[in-house]
Amino acid sequence: MTTPAPPVPPTGPVEPVVSVEPALLARSVPPVLSVRGLGVRFRMRGGRHIAAVTDAGFDLAAGECLALVGESGCGKSVLASALLGLLPGNAQTTGSAVLDGIDLLAADERTLARTVRGRRVGLVPQSPAAHLTPVRTVRAQLEETVRELTGTRGREPHRAAEAAADRAAFPAGHLDRYPHELSGGLAQRAATALALIGDAPLLLADEPTTGLDRDLVDRTADELRRHADEGRALLLITHDLAAAERIADRVAVMYAGRIVELTDAQRFFGERGPRHPYARGLLDALPERAFTPIPGLPPELGELPAGCAFAPRCPRATDLCATTPPFTDGLACHHPRESTDESPEESPEERSDERPDESAEETVRA
Amino acid sequence: MLELRSITAGYERRAPVVRDASLTLAPGTSLGLLGPSGCGKSTLARVAALLHRPDAGTVTVDGQRATGWRHRAPRAQRTAIGVVFQQPRLSADPRLRLSELIAEPLRATGRRSDLTAHVGELARTVGLTGELLGRRPHEVSDGQLQRACLARALVLRPRWLVCDEMTAMLDASTTAALVAVVEEYRREHGAGLLAVGHDRVLLERWCDRTVRWTEITGAG
Ligand code: SF4
After folding, report:
1. How far apart are CA A220 and CA B198, in angstroms?
2. Out of the domains of life, which is the source (chain B) (predicted)?
C-alpha cells in the first residue's frame, strides 16, 4: 500500500499513467472485510423462522468508516453478532463475510476464539460497564487480554496494555482504577483500549454512543474516527445519525433485515440526501430537521410482508412494491427519489405519474 | 402550577447531588431542563414526580404542598403526575404483558373496569396494537417498550408530565413519534411538561422554554 506504483515504462507517456493510477490503486487494494449475501435466520418454536438479516452485502476498506444505521430491531446488531461469531445456537447463516482470508460465517468456534475475536475484529461495546469486569482494575484487564491474545508473559503485557491505553486516550494515571471509579467517558475509552489491544484490522463499534451526552458522543466518535485514520476499517453500528454524520465515509441503511441503501455519507447527509424513502424518513425525523416520525412501526421480522417490507409505511408505495425490489446500484426501491444535483426539493419531472398524496409529503418536507 | 423551591436532594446527606434547585411550571406549558449526565437532573425529576424525598425544599402541586413521597404521596397528587424514564427495561415489570403494563396504574387506584377501553385507545395512540399488547417486555424492542411506558404514564390522565431522558435510547423516528404523542396529549388535556435531557437540539425543538441545569441550581 505504501508503494503505489505500476512501473512506468521509460518510453511510455507519463501523463496518462499518472491519471490512471489512483483508480488502479483503489481497485487493487483488497477490502479488509467483504460481506456477500449475508443472511441470518433464527429457528423458533413451532418451526417458525425469523429472518433477522437478509442478503446483506458490502465491502469495507482499511481507513474507512461505514455506518450501519436503522431502528432498533432492524437487524444491525444481529449482523454484528454474525461477524463476531456470537450468534445463538438456533441461528442459520447464509452467504459469506471474508476477513483476512477467513470466512467468519463458516469458521468454527475455535478459529473464531483464537484468531478472530480480539485479533482480527476488535469490539467496541455498547455498554462499557457491562464489558469491563467490575472487580478488576483496567490495567489487570488489559494485561490479561494481552496474555490471552499473544501468550506472552513478563513485561510485554505491561507494555502493550499501556500502549493500548495510550492509543485509546485513556490516561495512564487511571489504569489502576476499577471500572466503577471511572466516568462514563473514561469507561468507554477503557473498553476501546480493550478493543484495540490485539491490533485488529477491523473495529466493530456496536452503538458506542448510546445514552452518552452530546459532547461525549462527539469525542467518542472522533476517537473512533482516529483509529480508522490510523488504518483500521471501522464498522459503526448505530441509531445515532449525528454520530454517523460526524465520522462515516459511507452509510448503509438497514430496514427489516435488509440493507436498503448504501451510499456516500456526504451525499446522504448533504443537500442531495438519500434516495430511499425510509432513509429520507429517518433523516426527516431528526429534531434539527422536520421532527416528523415515520408513521407506523417496523414489521415483525417473523412476519415480513411480501415484497418491500417498508411498503405499509411508505408514501411512495405502488402495486409494484408487492414485489421485492432488488438491491442495485446501492439501492433497493422501486420508486426512489432521484434528486437532481441543483435542487433536491423541486424537480418537476419527477413522479408526475404517482399518487396524489405525494404532494402533501413534499409540503411537509419543504 | 408545579413548583420546586430550593430543593436539595441526594442519596447521602453529606453529598447531595442537587443543591438549592428551583423551578416553576405553569399549567399547559413545557419546560426543557438541559444538563450533562450525572449532574443531578434525574434526581430532581424524581423529586418533581414525588418519587424521591428531598432533604430540603418544597414541592407544590396545584397549590398543595407535597408532604409524602412514593407510595406515601396522597393519591390525588400522585395521580396528577405521569412520569417516563430513560430506560424502559428498568421501570417495567418483566412479568406483565404490555396491555397489563399500560393498565398498571389503574389497578393501583382501583379504577379498573371503566377504563379498559381507554387502555386500548391509548395503546393505539402510542402505536401499539394487536398481538404486541400480549407480549412481555423481553419480547419487544426498547422502542416498543418505551411506547408502552409512555401510555402507562398517560393512563390516569395526569395534569403534569415528567419525562426524564425519555428518548435517549431511541432512534430518531421513535423519538419524534413519542414526542408527538406527548404533545398531542398536552394539546388535548392542557397538561404541563417537564422534559429533562442532555440533547439541546431536541429539547429546544420540543419545549416552549429550555433552561440549563446551572441556571436553576444554587451551586451552579
Ligand atoms: S419499493 Fe416501494 S414501498 Fe418500498 S420503499 Fe420503494 S417505493 Fe416505498
Report:
1. 16
2. Bacteria
